[in-house]
Each structure stands twice: as structure tokens, then as C-alpha cells.
Design brief:
Blueprint: H1 9-12, H2 27-40, E1 47-52, H3 59-72, E2 76-81, H4 85-88, H5 90-105, E3 112-114, E4 124-126, E5 131-135, H6 141-156, H7 167-173, E6 185-189, E7 207-211, H8 219-231
Parallel strand pairs: 1-2, 1-6, 2-5, 3-5, 6-7
Antiparallel strand pairs: 3-4
Helix pairs in contact: 3-5
EC number: 2.5.1.87
Keywords: Angiogenesis, Developmental protein, Differentiation, Endoplasmic reticulum, Glycoprotein, Lipid metabolism, Magnesium, Membrane, Receptor, Transferase, Transmembrane, Transmembrane helix
Family: Belongs to the UPP synthase family.
Length: 238
Amino acid sequence: SCALLAPAAGAFGFRKGGAARRRPGAAAQGRQRWRLDGRALQKLPVHMGLVVTEEEPSYADMASLVVWCMAVGISYVSVYDHNGIFKRNNSRLMDEILKQQQELLGVDCSKYTVEFANQDKANQVLNCQSTLKVLSPEDGKADIVKAAQNFCQLVAQQQRTYTDLDVNVLDNLLSSTNGFPDPDLILKFGPVDSTLGFLPWHIRLTEIISLPSHLNISYEDFFSALHHYAACEQRWGK
């Protein structure tokens, strides 16, 4: 994608040390604040991509970002790192999300479904109304190649003709985002000015915001990025 990356450190007041996320007795106050924050935004992304370009991903910090997405009301979340570390260790990430969900959100949510893309793994049900996919590079270009091969096979079997191929047909053949809308917003973490293969077919109209790091990120930094997205004017290529 040739989408422009937003300025990193200065625009959002990024604090490397982060804010204390687990102050005693702050959970109920935090839950109410996050709900109000989500409602106060002029627009909220339906699908948020969390893309880590750093070499050492943090499970705890990524779990915090996922739980904050849940708390403000984002319906779909994709987690991606270019080495596929989160996907290979998805059980560890899930455990951290469950832990932080209980600490930060309590048990008063409705339903939260976690699905790991392209894996024979049963859905895991948590407690909030968001759906998560953990992606790796194989869910990007490799998924497009696989979709093209499947379409060619359908043509060879005379179940399709080459004139049937259009955007909607290809979307339906892609398995990495089955059931997911295209991302509205990507938060890209790290020094690399690239999304490093994250869903290349799906992000042609996606807003991309770059932050220096996901390590020790605070809720204030996360919400500042959401506020920037809510205030931006999207011209859809016009």
C-alpha cells in the first residue's frame, strides 16, 4: 500500500514509560471512562489493525491494546507482526488477553470471540463484543496467491470463467479476512515506515497512523490515535 504514514512521536504525545495501567481500585473507573471515550468520538473504526514492526513483540502490551479496542467498542481487531511471532504463540497471547480482560474490564461484558486466521483451532469465547484475528505474512501475499490458484482451479473445472473474476469474487476467495470488513485504521508500531505485508489487498483505503513503539504504550497514546482518526477527513482517493 502507498498509504501515507502519519507523523509518529510528536503528534500523540507518546510517553515511552507509559501510564500505570493497573492501579489498585481503578478498574471500575477505567471501564466507565473507556465506554464514554468510545461514545464521544465522532467516528470509531469498525476494524482496527495493530501492526508491530519491532523485532521483540510484547504480549502484555499487545493484550492491553486489544482490550482497549474491546473497551471502546471496536468490533474487529487484527494483530500482526512480520515474523509471525504472535500467531505461532497465539495461546500465550490469548492467556494475556484473558488476564487483562478480567483485570481491566471485569466480567460484566457480553461476548467476545477470538478466532485465529487459517488455523484449525476452535473459537475461544471471552466476554466482550469484539472479534480478533491473529495474522502473519502467510495471510497476506501468500493468501492472495492461494486465492488465485483456487480461482484457476475453478476455471479448469468449468465452474467459473475467467470473466467472473472481480473484486468481490477475490474477496470471497481470501481466507485470511473471511467475515471481516476491510480495516478502517491501522496503528503501526516501530521505526519501519511500512506495514510489512499486512493484508496488502485490503488496505487501499485504510488510514495508517504510525507510533514509535508498542512497548509500555499508555491508554492515552492509544486514545490520542483514535481521536486523530476520528478528526481526519477521508477523501476516498478524490
